[in-house]
Specification:
There is one protein chain. This protein has helices spanning about 15-30, 50-60, 65-75, 95-100, 130-135, 135-140, 150-165, 165-170, 180-190, 230-240, 255-265, 275-285, 300-310, 320-325, 340-350, 355-370, 375-400; strands at about 1-10, 35-40, 80-85, 105-110, 120-125, 125, 175, 195-200, 215-220, 245-250, 270-275, 290, 315, 330-335. It has about 425 residues and is an alpha/beta fold. It has two domains: about 1-110 and about 165-205 and about 375-400, Response regulator (Rossmann fold, 3-Layer(aba) Sandwich); about 215-370, 3-Layer(aba) Sandwich (Rossmann fold), CATH 3.40.50.2000. The strands form three sheets. The chain has a six-stranded parallel sheet, with helices on both faces. Strands 11-10-9-12-13-14 form a six-stranded parallel sheet, sandwiched between helices. Strands 5-6 form a two-stranded antiparallel sheet. α10 (about 230-240) links the parallel β9 (about 215-220) and β10 (about 245-250). The radius of gyration is 22 Å and the shape is globular.
Length: about 425
């Protein structure tokens, strides 16, 4: 199958970037021809002043991305397009480009960008669902995106416009939700339940389980406020024994976290910075514990699959989809969100329970092999693609083709309904 993959990569690499790489790797491993369209947020640094002023407009409708993707569709003739992140440079304009070329569209729903200007449902140190319950203007009032009301207004305008013209509800043929938890938020975003397909994330290539472990705990992920790093470091202050902690990744909190570690004299804590995927997997495979202290609603963090695949016991905050993905006492252990004392107590107990960790390690590996391999993910994705392509074909034989260009007045030309039919 010839598949178009579309992604807007982040400046600080995160879970969606890892997912894009994994799924591309998986599709190629199974003999599919992948065509990619990628834009990077790093390019924003190269924009001149005029281009920066136009960025809010391009977030709503990126003409360059529309033209590029339409050309790719017309020349490469993909059978289906899969969208990952489109914010801000790709923009939903590519959905209309695909539709104009007659290419059905699947879009990943990995975070909360369609219901929250910040994309995290996290504000002022805790969960926030005001924009979901009361409207996007709440995010503007709080300045949720980049702590700027102006920047948040631009994001909210992008969301409001595409909701109004039915970009996601009418012109995306299907959505891929990695967990039931995030599937319910897709429904709250106005997407019809029958148009959402449940497809867990995966690791395309099996990294292999562990034969033993080294004496350290690992956090691997973005260093940002919603990830619970302060809770993690405060817990390490309470341990009263020098358990090594490696922190892999980068993000806006890193300098503040490093200063805290220095001030508290936590010599057992080491920041590794951004690592390659292979290096992250090696660190995970050798870790005695993998810790996911997040304080936001994770959709399906790649760190969970990596830990399961590497047979690493998980210690996670009991929140969001983590409760769906981890079995207490079987593949991992929970502590209450933002509770550094309970986290410290749990780490101390597990650190001195090698028999328990060996049992959980074996069960974690079995969980990966049962649910999250590349083979299983590929089979599920092909089922979804076949369903979407067949439904689109049926619609095209019964509904006249119409233009999918936006008029100068900003109103979409008439279009037919997408989805399963």
């Amino acid at each position: 199958m010839r598949i178009l993959l579309i992604h807007n990569s982040y400046q600080k690499k995160g879970g969606e970037d890892a997912l894009f790489a994994v799924e591309q790797e998986m599709l190629r491993a199974y003999g599919h021809q992948t065509v990619t369209y990628i834009r990077s947020n790093d390019d924003i640094e190269l924009f001149n002043s005029w281009r920066r002023l136009r960025l809010p407009v391009e977030t709503v409708w990126a003409s360059e991305s529309y033209t590029d993707v339409l050309r790719i569709c017309q020349t490469s003739k993909p059978e289906i397009a899969i969208l990952f992140n489109t914010f801000p440079l790709v923009s939903p304009a590519v959905i209309y480009a695909c539709r104009r070329a007659g290419v059905p569209v699947l879009q990943h729903f990995q975070n909360y960008r369609l219901v929250c200007s910040a994309g995290t449902l996290f504000r002022d140190g805790g969960i926030c669902q005001e924009c979901v319950d009361h409207g996007l203007w709440r995010g503007i009032w709080h300045g949720c995106y980049r702590e700027s009301r102006v920047a948040t207004a631009a994001v909210a305008a992008h969301l409001a416009f595409h909701r109004a013209v039915g970009t996601w509800s009418k012109h995306v043929n299907g959505f891929l939700a990695p967990s039931r938890f995030i599937l319910e938020f897709a429904v709250r975003a106005g997407i019809e339940r029958h148009n959402i397909y449940l497809k867990p994330n995966c690791l395309a290539i099996d990294p292999g389980g562990k034969d033993g472990w080294e004496e350290y705990a690992l956090y691997a992920g973005r260093l940002s406020p919603e990830k619970g790093l302060w809770t993690l470091l405060k817990a390490w202050c309470e341990l009263q024994e020098p358990i090594r902690l490696y922190i892999a990744g980068d993000g806006p909190l890193r300098p503040h976290l490093e200063e805290f570690v220095k001030h508290k004299g936590l010599n057992c804590v080491k920041f590794l910075g951004n690592l390659s995927r292979d290096d992250v997997l090696n660190k995970t495979r050798n870790a005695k514990l993998c810790i996911i202290p997040t304080e936001c609603f994770e959709g399906f963090p790649m760190a969970v699959i990596e830990a399961l695949a590497c047979s690493a016991p998980i210690v996670a905050s009991e929140i969001g989809a983590l409760r769906e993905l981890i079995s207490e006492g079987q593949t991992g252990f929970f502590f209450p969100v933002n509770d550094c004392m309970r986290l410290a107590k749990l780490v101390r107990r597990l650190w001195h329970s090698p028999g328990l960790l060996l049992r959980v390690s074996a069960q974690a590996r079995k969980e990966y092999q049962t649910k999250y391999t590349g083979e299983q993910s590929h089979r599920r994705l092909m089922e979804i693609c076949d369903d979407v392509i067949a439904a689109t074909s049926r619609q095209q034989t019964t509904i006249p083709n119409r233009s999918h260009r936006l008029s100068w007045a900003g109103r979409p030309a008439p279009k037919h309904r997408g989805g399963r039919g």
